[in-house]
Structures are given as structure tokens and as C-alpha cells.
Amino acid sequence: MNRKLMEDSFRLLQAEMSPIAGIQLHLSPAECEQLFSVLERHDLEYDRKVHLLGIYIILTVAAERHMECAPHHPDLTRNILDGDYLYSFYLQLAVKYRELDLVAYLAPSIKKMQIARSNGDFADQNPAAGIEEFLIQEQRPQSRTSKAI
Amino acid sequence: MKLHEALNIDLDEINHEIQNIVARDKDVPKKSQLAKSILELTGSGGKRLRPLMVIVGSRFGRKPSGRRTLQLSAAAEFIHAASLIHDDIIDNAELRRGTPALHTKTGVLSAVHIGNYMSARVIELLSKYTGDKNRYVHDLSSVATAQLCLGEYQQMEHAYDYNLTFDEYLEKSRNKTAMLMATCLRVGALSTESPEDVAGLLYNFGEALGMSFQIQDDLLDFTQSADVLGKPAGSDLRNGQVTLPVLFALQDPELAPIIRTIGPASSEEEVAHVLALINRSDALARTEEVSQDYLDQAAAIIQRLSSYPAHADLETLLQYFAGRDR
């Protein structure tokens, strides 16, 4: 099941990303494991799981590419552009698949991660935890979602 | 008269809003390197063209502009400034607006993440506008920024590519420069609930202005001194950027083989020689004509919006862009 989910997510991302960027997304099943566990704990439609995994992959790869921005690195330019493109693509995808409430929920933690990294604090920050917190909050009866508006 | 004065826009209010984006972030200590670096960069000048375009766009709406328009105008500058931080790393530029580029002070990895913070902060601020009808507030951070990256990829892909076509050049310029300006006018208009067709016309106007702006920028690299440019004249050619004057010059059978010799290993003398040859050809005049074509397209759009009093502000923008090189 998880393998199909991964394949469908990667297929979606490669179809939606501009070929001009030429980004090849590589993430192992092990790297997706934390989000698989989250998705299994929540009763979500399959398509939404594909979108959420797609968002998780983009955020993970964007952060990875920007962590590889060492001076004189032969791929410095590409790493900067890939990270920049993926962060903007993340928002495009969220708008298209109506996940802007998730974007709003994750925004402070993504921002804090950038602050920490600009200060030399490179502790691992996995977006799966934030996505899980959002899903729990979304399932509370009083929560608002863009789908409901 | 300065552009913001001609447009009757309070630039201090915009500058204050830009500074507040970081100054009011409770997650950023006031004396941190991040806060200081961003305040220095955003306070170091710049024409604020993009914020001004947001405000002008807002004058075409059915409602008066308010807090949201002001935030969007500041966001436009913030996004632009973030892109400059990353551009300077990519270009290995030491100076920005006459002072050391941010990455030379903080290191590359830190600077990359300071730029990221700026983008993430904009998303955080604008996320408070929820609901389908407000999705446009993210256009600056999503579509326009993605297109900007695509323009950079295209520029990287075509370095020293003397077989670049005119269409490829125009597409790269549209992505790299014009679409952000177009989006500024459009989101400004939507922030005051303008009709969608008017927002679309403003987008087209901004795109035409942006194209002319980029082409003029390419021309300035040939015609202005290093002092005016803030970088050595001829930097584009030296860095392998095949701009419109070069494309026109390549159509000259005598010039083409000489231009094609320019590569990453070319000496300063070789580059200077080719620059002089291009300057003496008709390439610059032909480039100017293309720029003027885009300004004419923009002027035609103003005519279609002439029932709006704010069309006079579009005329002011047009005149500013037309006179930018003189």
C-alpha cells in the first residue's frame, strides 16, 4: 500500500513540476516512514493521502537542497534554485489541492526552522509531526477548513 | 519628482510596513544577526517599484485600499529582497547597493536560510487571509516566485548559448522579471475587489512593463558606466548571459563569429573588444525598438482602462519606465 502511495505521489509531483526545473525527486521509503505512520492513523481519502505525501516530499527535499548550499559546492546554484522552486511549488500545490489551512498551520514551524538554520542550528526537523498535529486539529468539530468555506 | 510622489503614495508608510515584517516577529530577537541583516538590506534603498505597483493596482478596486493592500505591498518587496539575497550568492556578487552583499557577512549557508526566512514569514503573515476568495494573496509567493526560479534555471541552462532563440530569451525575461511585476498589479487590484477582467488587464500591463524593464536592464549593461550600474559594465556578456543586444548582434555575419568566441575563459580584453563592437552595431537601437514595442502594448492597455481615474497612475508608471535609461 505504501509503495503504491509513494509511486502515485511521485508521479503527481513529476507531472505538476515544471520540466524547466529538471528536478529529480529522490526519497527512500525509509525517509517517508514517519508520514506513512501518520497517514495510517487517520481516516483520509486516498487522493488526499497522495497530496499530503507529495507536500511532505517537497518540504523534505527543499530543506535538504538548501542544507547543501556550501560555498564553492559545484552544485551550489542548482541547490539554491531547487530549494527555492520547491518551496514555491509547495504553495502552488497546496493552493491547487486546497490545503491552505495546512500551509497556515505549518507556516510558523517552517519559519522557525529557517531562523534556527540561519543561526547554525541544523537539528533535524521532520514535517510529519506538524502534519499530524494539523490533522488532529482538523478533526476537532470546531475547526475551520478552506474546504468548508 | 520621484515616482512615489508622482503617484501620491506614502513611501514612509510602506517602508515602515516592510521593517515591521521582521521587527514585529516575536520569534526573531531584535538584535539577532537575522534581524539586523534584513533591516540593513531592506533599508538600504531600492526604488520600491513592486510595492508601488501593488498600491497602484489597488486603485482599480471597488473598495478603498486598507491594511491588506499595505501588507501585500510590503510582502512584494520582501519577496523581491529574498530573491536578491539568493541571486547574489548565485552570481558570487560581493556588493549589493554599494555595500557588502549579505552572504559576505553571514556566510552562504546562513544567507540562504535568511532568504528562506523572509519567504516563510510572508507566507505566515498572509495565511491569516483564509477562504477560496483570498487564495490570490499567495500568488506572489507561489506562482510569481516559481516563475522567477524558472527564469533563473533558463538563464543557467543557456549560459554562453549563442544559439538561444528570441522566443527563449523572451520567455526567460518574462519568468525572471515580468511576471512578478504583473502579479503585483493583479494582487493589488484583487485586494480591493476589482473585477477579474480589470485585474487581468493590469496583469498584462505589468507584464509588458516588466518586459520593457528587463530589456532596458540588458541595454544598460552596454550603455552605462560601472559607477551607475554598481557592477562592472558588460557583466552580462562576461557571465555568459546572452541578452537581446547580443542576439541582434549575432545576426550580423561579421560580428557573429567574434561574439561566439566569448566563453568562461575569455580575457577582459576580449570581452571589452566584443562589447565595443556590439556598441557600434545597430543591435542597441534594435533592442530599444523591442523595448518600445512593449511600452506601446502597455499604453494600449491604459486606453482600455481609461474609464478608471487611476489610469493616470498607469501613465505615470509608463513614463517612468520609458525614461529609466535617460
Provide an overview of this structure.
The complex is a heterodimer of chains A (149) and B (326). With 149 residues, chain A is mainly α. Chain A has one domain (1-136). Chain A is 68% helix and 0% strand. Chain A contains six helices and no strands. Chain A has helices at residues 2-16, 29-40, 46-67, 76-96, 100-118, 127-139. Chain A is globular and about 50 Å long. The termini of chain A are far apart. In chain A, 40% of the residues are buried. The model of chain A has no long low-confidence stretch (mean pLDDT 93). Chain B has helices at 3-6, 11-23, 33-42, 49-58, 67-90, 102-106, 108-126, 140-157, 166-191, 196-223, 226-229, 235-238, 244-249, 256-259, 268-280, 283-304, 311-322; strands at residues 95-96, 99-100. In chain B, strands 1-2 form a two-stranded antiparallel ribbon. Chain B contains 17 helices and two strands. In chain B, a hairpin with a 2-residue loop joins β1 (95-96) and β2 (99-100). Chain B has 326 residues and is mostly helical. The chains are: A mainly alpha (149), B mainly alpha (326). The interface between A and B is large, with 41 and 44 residues.
Keywords:
heterodimer; A: 149 residues; mainly alpha; B: 326 residues; Farnesyl Diphosphate Synthase; two-stranded antiparallel ribbon; 17 helices; 68% helix; globular; Polyprenyl_synt_CS (chain B)
Q: What strand order characterises the main sheet of chain B?
A: 1-2
Beta-strand proportion of chain B: under 5%
Structural class of chain A: mainly alpha
Strands of chain B, count: 2
How many structural domains are formed by the residues of chain B? 1
Question: What fraction, in percent, of the residue positions of chain A are helical?
Answer: 55-70%
- What is the mean predicted local confidence, pLDDT of chain A? 93
- How much helix is in the residues of chain B? 55-70%
Run of helices and strands of chain B: HHHHHEEHHHHHHHHHHHH
Shape of chain A: globular
**Given the structure, what is the number of helices of chain A?**
6
Give the topology string of chain A: H per helix, E per strand.
HHHHHH
CATH class descriptor of chain B? Mainly Alpha
How would you characterize the largest beta sheet of chain B?
Answer: 2 strands, antiparallel
List the chains of the largest interface with their residue counts: A-B, 41 and 44 residues
* Rg of chain B computed from alpha carbons, rounded to a whole number of angstroms: 20 Å
Fraction in beta strands of chain A: under 5%
Number of helical segments with 4 or more residues of chain B: 17
Structural class of chain B: mainly alpha
Q: Sketch the major β-sheet of chain A.
A: none
Protein name (chain B): Heptaprenyl diphosphate synthase
Organism (chain B): Paenibacillus jilunlii
Cofactor (chain B): Mg(2+)
GO molecular function, one term (chain B): prenyltransferase activity
